[in-house]
C-alpha cells in the first residue's frame, strides 16, 4: 500500500518486516563527502557497467547504495548490483554482498530529497516495534533516474536489517 500527498510531495509505503536471502553483489566502495555523492554514483555506474559486461555477469537487481554506519560529513558506502555470480575485481569494482535475515522495508515515492524523512519513518517504525536497527542499510533504486523525468515518479526501496 502506498500513498502520495495530494500536492505531489514525496511519500512512502507502509513499512513491513521481510526475510531476505543473502545476495552476491558487484560494487564500487568508497568514503565520499556528501557534496561528492552524485559524482561517485555516476563514476561507479560507469565502472560497474564495463566490468559486468566484460565478465558476462547477469545483474539480478536494480542499482543500490549500501550505507555503512551513520551518515556524517562523509558517507561510507558501496554502489552496485546484485549479480548471478562473483565479479573478478577490476578497475575499482569488487565483490560484495547484501546480508540475509530479517529486515524492515518500505518504498519511498518521489525525489531523493525526501529520502531522509522516509528513513526516519522506517527507523521510528522499527523502534516502536522493538526491532533493533543494524548498522548498515541500503536503498534500491527501483526507478532508474533520468535527466528528463519527473522526480515524483522515482521509486526507491529502503531496507534496514534487524540486528538480531
Tell me what the structure shows.
Strands 1, 2, 3, 4, 5, 6, 7, 8 and 9 form a nine-stranded antiparallel sheet that branches. The longest helix has 18 residues, at 37-54. This protein has two helices and nine strands. Strand 4 and strand 5 (74-82) form a beta hairpin. The chain has one domain: Regulatory factor, effector binding domain (Multidrug-efflux Transporter 1 Regulator Bmrr, Chain A, Alpha-Beta Barrel), CATH 3.20.80. Mean pLDDT is 91; it is low at 1-8. It is 20% helix and 37% strand. It has 164 residues and is an alpha+beta fold. This is GyrI-like domain-containing protein. Pfam families: GyrI-like. Residues 13-163 form the AraC effector-binding domain. InterPro entries: AraC_E-bd, GyrI-like, Reg_factor_effector_dom_sf.
**Percent of sequence in beta strands:** 35-45%
Distance between the termini: 27 Å
Strand elements, count = 9
Give me the CATH architecture, please.
Alpha-Beta Barrel
Uncertain runs: 1-8
Q: Provide the domain count.
A: 1
Give the helices and strands, then pairings:
Blueprint: E1 11-12, E2 16-20, E3 23-33, H1 37-54, E4 64-68, E5 74-82, E6 93-98, E7 101-109, H2 115-128, E8 136-141, E9 155-161
Antiparallel strand pairs: 1-7, 2-7, 3-5, 3-6, 4-5, 4-8, 7-9, 8-9
Protein name: GyrI-like domain-containing protein
Domain AraC effector-binding: 13-163
InterPro entries: AraC_E-bd, GyrI-like, Reg_factor_effector_dom_sf
Q: What's the short story on this structure?
A:
It contains 2 helices and 9 strands; from the N terminus they run βββαββββαββ.
